[in-house]
What we know:
Blueprint: E1 19-25, E2 33-35, E3 49-54, E4 60-66, E5 72-78, E6 89-98, E7 105-115, E8 123-124, E9 128-134, E10 142-145, E11 148-149, E12 160-163, H1 168-173, E13 174-176, E14 182-185, E15 196-204, E16 210-220, E17 228-234, E18 237-239, E19 247-254, E20 264-268, E21 274-278, E22 283-288, E23 299-308, E24 315-325, E25 333-334, E26 338-344, E27 351-355, E28 358-359, E29 370-373, E30 377-378, E31 381-382, E32 387-389, E33 395-398, E34 409-417, E35 425-435, E36 443-446, E37 456-460, E38 468-471, E39 473-475, E40 486-492, E41 498-500, E42 506-509, E43 520-528, E44 536-546, H2 560-594, H3 600-609, E45 638-640, E46 643-644, E47 649-650, H4 665-682, E48 688-691, E49 700-703
Parallel strand pairs: 1-7, 9-16, 18-24, 26-35, 37-44, 45-49
Antiparallel strand pairs: 2-5, 3-6, 4-5, 6-7, 8-11, 10-14, 12-15, 13-14, 15-16, 17-19, 19-22, 20-23, 21-22, 23-24, 25-28, 27-33, 29-34, 30-31, 32-33, 34-35, 36-39, 38-42, 40-43, 41-42, 43-44, 46-47, 48-49
Protein name: Cadherin domain-containing protein
InterPro entries: Cadherin-like_dom, Cadherin-like_sf, Cadherin_C, Cadherin_CS, Protocadherin/Cadherin-CA
Main location: membrane
Amino acid sequence: MEVQIDDVNDNSPKFSKNEFVLKIPEQLPVNSRFPLERAQDPDIGTNGIQSYAISSNEYFSLDVHSRGDGSKYAELLLEKQLDREEHAQLILVLTAADGGLPQRTGTARIRVNVLDSNDNFPQFSQSVYKVQLMENSPRDTLVTKVEASDLDQGLNAEITYSFGQVPDRVLKLFQLKPFTGEITVLGIIDYEDAAMHEIEIHATDGGGLYAHCKVMVEIKDMNDNAPEVTLTSLTSTISEGSSPETVVALFSVSDRDSRDNGRTLCSIQDNVPFALKSTLKNFYELVTQKPLDREKVPEYNITITATDRGTPRLTSVRVIRVQLSDINDNPPVFNESSYVMYLKENNPPGLLIGTVHAADLDTEQNAKVTYSALPGNISDFPFPSSISINSENGQVYALQSLDYEQRRDFQVTVRAADGGSPPLSSEVIVRVVIIDQNDNAPFILYPLQNSSSPANDLVPRSAEAGYLVTKVVAVDGDSGQNSWLSYQLLKATDPSLFAVGLQTGEVKTSRPITSPDSVKQKLVVVVRDNGEPARSTTSTLNVLLVDGFSDAYMQLLDVPQEEEQQGTLTLYLVISLSFVSFLFLVSVVTIVAIRLCKTRQCRDQYVSSSRNFYSDHNFPTNPAETSGTGTLPQSYCYEVCLTTGSGTSEFKFLRPLVPSLPVDPIAAGQLLPELKETVCQHILAQRTCFISPHTHSLSHTLLLPPSACTLPLKSS
C-alpha cells in the first residue's frame, strides 16, 4: 500500500546567510555575471523555489536559470559599469519565492563592495600656485605647500610629490618634500639671477597615475648689490699740456638690483682737475677740466664713486690711475741765486773750484741739464784760458794759476740748458774770489838795496839815546795779516848801540855814543810779514859815527861843475815833484768829493794829514792798527839823491811838497799809471821808479845814479 503524502507549502525559502558580500571591481565590463547562492526550500514541487528577484537598482539585474533537475539559480548581471568613486558599496535584497499557495519567500542582503581600480588621477587644489619670496631668504624657509587628492582608495590614493621638468638651477634653489608637498629654500635666492621661478610639481598616486601643477615663485628684490663700474676705454697716460675737455676714460655704471635699488649716481672727488660727463644712460666720460702740471702733481688717482638709491644705499668705488707725461715747460733752476767760490792763489792748473747745480722739474731728456759758461773776457785775460765748466756736472775748474796780486776776484756767467725741444735755459753769476797766499816777501823801499853806491847814514857822536838814525821802509804785496810787517835788528857791529822799532822800522840809538864805539857801524835789519809761514827780507845799513860834517866829507863841495849840475838837478826834481803832487792832490780831492757821503772820516784824516810831515811821522805800534790793506795807513815818500866820490858820500832829505793823504785804493790804482808816466817822463831816463800798486797808499822812490849828481850839496 502506498501512501502518498501531498506536500503542503509549509516552508519558506531560506538562504544560508542573511547577507552575502560581493567584492566587485569597478570598471568591470557590462554584462559581467556574478553567480548567487541558491536559497533552500524543503518543499517540493511547486512549493519549492520557483523564482528569484532583486531589489531595484541601476547597476544590476537578476538572471534566473533552471538546472537540469528543475532547480532554479540566479546570477547578478551587470547592467552599468560600477564606479567606486560614485558608489563604493551597494546593498541589494535578493528574494527567493516558491510556487505554493500562499506563496512563501525568503530574503538575503547582498552587499556589493565596489573594489577600487586606479581609474582616478590625483587632483591639485590649484593648477597654478603663485607665491612671493624675498631674495636672500635663509635655507629651509617655507616657500609654499601644494596639495593633491585622489578619489581612489588605498594604494591608489597614496600620493607622492616630485619636481617635473625643471632647470637644474631650480633643483639647487628649492627642495620638495615628497609626502607633504612642502617646498622649501635650499640654495641662495638671488633676484639678480632670476626674478621669477616657474616650478612644475607632479603628484603621483600608488597606481602610477599623476597630475601636475605649476608653482610661480616671484622673487622680491632687496638692495643687496652695489653698483658696478665697468671701464670701456682708458688712457692711462696723458700729456700735461692736454687741453680741457680731453677724454681720459669711458665707463659705464650698472646695478643688478631693480627700481630704486638699481638707480645710480656717479661722482669723483673735488680736488682733481677732472670732471664727469654723462653721455648715455649710465655711461660717462672722464674729461680734463683744468690745466695740468706734471711738476706739481705727476699722477692722479681718481676715485669714481657710484651709489644706488636703495635703502640702505650701497656704494662702490673704482680708482683710475692717470699719469701725466712731461713737456718741456720748466727751465733749469739753480739752487742759488748767485755763487761765490774761493780759490787760493798760485793754484795748480785744473784745480776744482766749486760746483754749480741746476735742477729741472721736467723728466727724462727735458730734465737733462748741460752747463756752459757764456763767452767773454774776464778783465785783462780771456775767459777760455782761465775757467772751464764741466758740461755734465757743473764743476768749475781753474785752467791756469791765478795771482791775487794781479786779480782779487772775477765773475763768470754760467748757463744751464735742458735737453728739451726747444731747450730752456737759465743763467747765474759765479763770483770767484781769489784768496791771498803769503807768496810775497817784504820789499824794502828804503834804504835801497843792491845799489852800486849804498848810502851811509851819519850820526854825530854827540847824539843822545833815542836819536833817529834812519827809517827802514818796506811794503808787502800780499794782503791782510800776510802784509803786516815787523822790524828787528838781526845783526849789528855793536848790538847795544842801536835799536829798531818793531812796527815802525825806525833805527834809533839806544844809548849815548862813547869814544870806544867804532866809527863804522853795520846794521842788518830783518823785515818779516805775519803770514804762515812768514817771509822776510833783510836790509843792510851803513852808519858812520862822526864828530860833524868835516872837510873830508864835504870835499865834493869844492867841485863847481858838480855843484852847478846838482843845483840844476835839484830844481828840476822840485818842479817835477810839484807837478806830480798837484795832479795827485786834484785827483784825491775829486774822489773825496764824489764819495763825500761815505768818506766823511776820510776827510777828517785828510785835514789831519795836511799837517807838517815831520810833526806826525810815527808808524803804528801794533800791526793790528793798520788799515788792513796790507801796508801802513799813510804814504811816506822819500826822495833821495846820492852822489859818490872817493870813498865818501853825502846825502840830504828833501821834504815832500805835498803831505801824505789817504787815498782810495781804486782811485789810486787808476792814478798810479798816470803818475808813473808823468814822473818818469820828467826825470832822467836813468832814474828808476818804484811803485807799489797793491796798497791803499802811494809810495815812490826816485833813485839817481852817480852820474846824475855832479854838484856838491850843502847840508840843510
